[in-house]
Specification:
The chain crosses the membrane at residues 24-45, 57-78, 99-123, 143-162. Keywords: Membrane, Transmembrane, Transmembrane helix. The chain has one domain (6-168). The protein is an all-alpha fold. Helix 5 runs antiparallel to helix 6 (133-168). It is elongated, with a radius of gyration of 19 Å. It has helices at residues 9-15, 23-41, 57-76, 80-88, 98-123, 133-168.
């Protein structure tokens, strides 16, 4: 890992894509996604008439705050030497620095999800464009499912942090 990923945090997500979420959480999210699509378009049991995007800003900002708190807690489970070992670890299968990127990637992914949902809920109510009702429904489904992906990813961070703390108790 060379340089600083600050200029392009999406590259961290891309490099850590296989380590962002466990498959069972991704499957749960896919069930939510397909369930909401089916519930809106075919079975008509999801009603967005009371949906107000601006009400979700506090959820998004809280998600960002919790992601930062979990990152600090997760980082504190490691000593500086451990983080340096992650940054310099290299093997035939793993490029140098990939272990550290795999540690940081889920935090960047979760933060980006809550950033996007927060910005949409902040600015979305002020954007008035004549859209077909179908596109409005699709955008609401996308928004709700992006928010649910953020919540599932936040749960993943909690479990990861707890695992790191548990493992650090047995580290020499």
């Amino acid at each position: 890992m060379e340089g600083n990923f600050y200029k392009n945090p999406i590259s961290v997500i891309w490099k850590a894509k296989s380590n962002l979420m466990p498959s069972y959480l991704f499957i749960i999210w896919m069930i939510f996604l397909f369930g909401s699509i089916i519930g809106v378009f075919w079975l008509n049991f999801i009603d967005f008439s009371s949906f107000k995007m601006e009400e979700y800003f506090s959820i998004s900002s809280t998600g960002l705050t919790l992601t930062l708190a979990l990152f600090v807690a997760g980082k504190d489970a490691f000593r500086d030497e451990d983080l340096k070992k992650l940054a310099s670890y290299e093997s035939d299968e793993v490029k140098k620095g990939q272990a550290l990127i795999d540690f940081i990637g889920p935090y960047v992914f979760t933060a980006l999800l809550f950033l996007i949902t927060g910005l949409i809920s902040l600015f979305g109510p002020f954007v008035k464009t004549p859209l077909d009702p179908l596109y409005i429904k699709i955008s609401k489904i996308c928004y709700i499912n992006m928010l649910s992906l953020g919540i599932l990813s936040l749960f993943n961070l909690v479990i990861t942090m707890l695992n790191d703390v548990f493992s650090s108790a047995f580290r020499k």
